[in-house]
Structure formats: structure tokens, C-alpha cells
């Protein structure tokens, strides 16, 4: 059986933790942040967990990571 190729764009956007949670970066933090409150800007800097319905798809795209 041949190896499965890793989807490189997915690997750049998601990271797998030690407990196999998939973490992603919050969207919308590149520009237009002057109007955001301090709390919103701070929360956008944090990583969040990917939705549980996406785990099966993402794990097939990242088989070895």
C-alpha cells in the first residue's frame, strides 16, 4: 500500500496537540483591527480548537503530523 500524501496547505493552518486536538488560528487579524476593542484583539491572538466535525477530514489530510 503506498504512502498517503500530506496536504501541505492544511499542515500550515492546523497543528495537532499531544492529546490529538486540532488547533487553528482565529480569522480576521491581519488588518482593520483599530476599531476592535482590546479584548477582541487579545482574543484573536489565541489559537482555538477546530470543530469536532472537521477532525476526520483533517486527519486524512494530515496523516503523519
From the 3D structure, determine the CATH topology. Factor Xa Inhibitor
Mean pLDDT: 91
Strand order of the largest sheet: 1-2-3
Question: How many strands in all?
Answer: 3
Note the gap between the termini: 19 Å
Overall SS class:
alpha+beta
- Shape estimate: elongated
Per DSSP, the total helix count is 3
Main sheet: strands, sense, barrel: 3 strands, antiparallel
Question: Helicity level, as a percent range?
Answer: 25-40%
- CATH architecture, please? Irregular
| Rg on CA atoms, Å | 15 Å
Number of domains: 1
Organism: Candidatus Falkowbacteria bacterium CG10_big_fil_rev_8_21_14_0_10_37_14
GO biological process, one term: translation
Family: Belongs to the bacterial ribosomal protein bL35 family.
Biased composition (Basic residues): 1-26
Overview in brief:
It holds the Pfam family Ribosomal_L35p. By secondary structure, the chain is of the alpha+beta class.
Key traits:
3 strands; 65 residues; 3-stranded antiparallel sheet; single chain; Large ribosomal subunit protein bL35; ribonucleoprotein; Ribosomal_bL35_sf; Factor Xa Inhibitor; ribosomal protein
Notes on the protein architecture:
This protein is α+β, with helices and mostly antiparallel strands. The chain has three helices and three strands. It has helices at residues 8-13, 38-44, 55-61, and strands spanning 14-16, 22-25, 47-49. A hairpin with a 5-residue loop joins strand 1 (14-16) and strand 2. The longest helix has 7 residues, at 38-44. The mean pLDDT is 91.
Topology of this structure?
Layout: H1 8-13, E1 14-16, E2 22-25, H2 38-44, E3 47-49, H3 55-61
Antiparallel strand pairs: 1-2, 2-3
Amino acid at each position: 500500500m503506498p504512502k498517503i500524501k500530506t496536504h501541505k496547505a492544511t499542515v500550515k493552518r492546523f497543528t495537532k496537540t499531544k492529546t490529538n486536538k486540532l488547533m487553528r488560528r482565529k480569522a480576521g487579524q491581519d488588518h482593520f483591527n483599530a476599531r476592535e476593542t482590546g479584548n477582541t484583539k487579545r482574543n484573536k491572538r489565541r489559537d482555538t480548537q477546530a470543530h469536532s466535525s472537521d477532525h476526520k477530514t483533517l486527519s486524512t489530510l494530515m496523516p503523519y503530523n
